[in-house]
Amino acid sequence: MRVAVLGLGLIGGSAALALAEAGHDVLGLDPDAATRDAAAAHFPVTADPAGLAGTDLAVVAAPFRHLAAIADETLAGYTGLVTDVSSVKDVPARLFARHRFVGGHPMAGKETAGFAAAEPGLFRDRKWVLCLEADTDLGDWTALAALWTSIGAHVVPATAAAHDRAAARISHLEHLVAAALVRVADEPLARTLAAGSFRDGTRVAASPTALFTGMVEGNREQLLAALDDLGEELGYAHGYLQTTDRPNPISEWFDGARALRADWPPEVLAAQRIPLTRDALVELGEAGGWLEAVESEVALARRPRVKSTP
User: Fold this and answer.
1) In this predicted model, what pLDDT tens digit does every residue of 106-139 receive, in sequence order?
2) Which CATH number applies to 2-158?
3) C-beta neighbour count of 35 within 10 angstroms
4) Domain segments of the chain: what residues?
5) Which of 98, 183, 259, 300 has a CA-to-CA distance to 83 between 20 and 30 Å?
């Protein structure tokens, strides 16, 4: 497949490297000369959107704030398939509505950014959401699923709305919490004593500000709902700490969270082949399952085991 990757930072650069390594004809597009120089040792690069002509797929890996301009200007008249890697899916779906578009989001990354941090194995065994809506062309979706599984990713079918709700709770909220934890610990003794819990709980606070500002603003509605739920949970803890009852209900609160955390990641069932039909894919995604390989008319799929209730 002839693939153009627009934006050669950590995610776009890693995708381009992985695709080139897998034997695809890759063209990198980036406005930064230093980035193009670094990438040129691995695949052809350009700063001219005219170079996109003749490619089969455009992977938009530019910052969230640039998506509208790319949809309206850079890809104006582009007739190939378009996908993206944004961590919010509802907004890109609207911006690229005039294109053959299938939204995507690889659940992978680092605190570091730029092509220098890119690596071809970044997506191996990592989840890659591909949005499957009622009007999504199944052939386009399947072609992308085959592409991303070919570089080792696990493709998860989901609607944009379902993705954005989940991402708000397992990614976007965590960035807000990490930033808040850093801010409340900003005193000399606390910073000296900080160790593993602080390090692990605040890791993503070191991420690029512009990237995550766009992310949380782009998923504002779902993130506000997640913040409400977080506030409710912390409210329980606040109330429990105010009580002098013995046993204190905060023990049960901790026990419940501990049990949920111990059950993650969930146990995975044996691989099975499923038909590449919309109904089968929707059911797989709603069950938290994913594709590991795409064959001619079937796909190799896995799903988490559903625990029986007592």
Assistant:
1) 999 887 789 999 999 999 999 999 999 999 999 9
2) 3.40.50.720
3) 22
4) 2-158, 163-262
5) 300
